[in-house]
Amino acid sequence: MPKPKRNPLDTLELKPGQSIELLKALHIVTREGGINQDSRRKLKQVYHLTQFIEPLIDEVRKANDGGLYLVDHGAGKSYLGFILYDLYLKQNPDGAVVAGVETRQELVDKSNTLAKQLGFDAGMQFINLPVAQATEHPDLPETVDIVTALHACNTATDDAISFGLKKQAKFMALVPCCQAEVATHLRKSKASQLGKSSLVEMWRHPLHTREFGSQLTNVLRCLQLEAHGYQVTVTELVGWEHSMKNELIIAKKHQRSNPKAAQRLRDMLVELGLDGEEGLQQRFHVPA
Ligand SMILES: C[S@@+](CC[C@H](N)C(=O)[O-])C[C@H]1O[C@@H](n2cnc3c(N)ncnc32)[C@H](O)[C@@H]1O
Fold first, then answer.
1. Nearest C-alpha to atom 12 of ligand 1 is from which residue?
2. How would residue 243 be classed by pLDDT, with cut points 50, 70 and 90?
3. Quick check: is 138 in a domain?
4. Which domain holds residue 273?
5. Looking at the structure, do residues 83 and 143 belong to the same domain, yes or no?
6. What is the DSSP string of 222-249?
């Protein structure tokens, strides 16, 4: 007897009420109803991240009588924003807004059109803007609840953190991309550090400069968040086979500031030769 054909959609572990139209628009499901394997990998990552963000949304909405303002930076095709809205917000949309910030106009236009098509446009908006300018943008409110950035390129994650600090975000969920700035500063400080500390061996070889720079960037981001009163958890997003950029930083505001963390950050910059006139203290600014 021939085996009954398996519905390819079963492999997506769809949630009740989840929009197939959205999955088609995001090219996760093909027009013929099959699965696009490349996009499926992306979906798996986004699903995983949404599981971390769902309790944050619940906590905010409980505290705000249903209100929620979430800003996703470096939104790209806005997989994350759309899946969040589809899974957790569209059933009870009053007061909930997901905004996406993205520099590529064509992606912003596509996302705004898709939001309209799905009937999500009352609660979703996409703005063509570099993250660094988002703090001043008139369409974004004075304060926001949640900041997300999934693989926002280079220093866009740092700009997202600055945005969240300025907008007093209660939570930030960040999956950083590669960041070249810290490695560039390490490269410049190498010569002056060689005689001072044997720790320079951590980044003497060019490949190590890049790897150590990448690790250090996230360490400094975490310290910066702690200095501003956030409780920080660092974890792996999904197995390494899915992405090399796999570190998830979740930050929850729990106190005004943390002077000890601020001092530790300052000390690290000095010890690594990253302070000084053109140093990194502006990038990783801490409360005065
Ligand atoms: C690697 S993609 C990730 C997109 C999306 N978050 C995702 O995970 O599918 C990075 C996106 O960030 C956008 N981007 C890069 N730098 C940016 C900046 N400074 N401000 C806003 N968007 C930026 C790029 O155009 C690109 O769409």
1. 74
2. low
3. yes
4. 179-228+251-288
5. yes
6. HHHHHHTTEEEEEEE-S-TTT-S--EEE
Q: How far apart are CA 227 and CA 221, in angstroms?
A: 10
Residue 129 CA, ligand 1 centroid: distance in Å: 11
Mean pLDDT across 59-71: 97
Q: How far apart are CA 175 and CA 157, in angstroms?
A: 8
Which residue among 73, 82, 103, 155 is best mutated to probe the pocket of ligand 1, counting the most ligand atoms within 8 A of its Cβ?
A: 103
Ligand 1 nearest-atom number relative to CA 154: 16
Q: Are the C-beta atoms of 79 and 47 separated by less than 8 Å?
A: no
Q: Which of 177, 194, 214 is the last residue of a domain?
A: 177
Encode pLDDT of 72-106 as tens digits. Answer: 999 999 999 999 999 999 999 999 999 999 999 99
Give per-residue pLDDT as tens, 156-190.
999 999 999 999 999 999 999 988 999 999 999 89
In this structure, the answer to whether residues 64 and 165 fall within a common structural domain is yes
CATH of residue 140: 3.40.50.150
Torsional sign, CA 126, 174, 136, 181? negative
Q: Which residues line ligand 1 at a C-beta cut-off of 6 Å?
A: 74-77, 79-80, 101-104, 107, 130-131, 150-153, 156, 177
What is the Å distance from ligand 1's center to 28 Cα? Answer: 19
Q: Which atom of ligand 1 is nearest to the CA of 131?
A: 20
Give the global pTM.
Answer: 0.94
Q: Do 91 and 53 fall into the same domain? A: yes
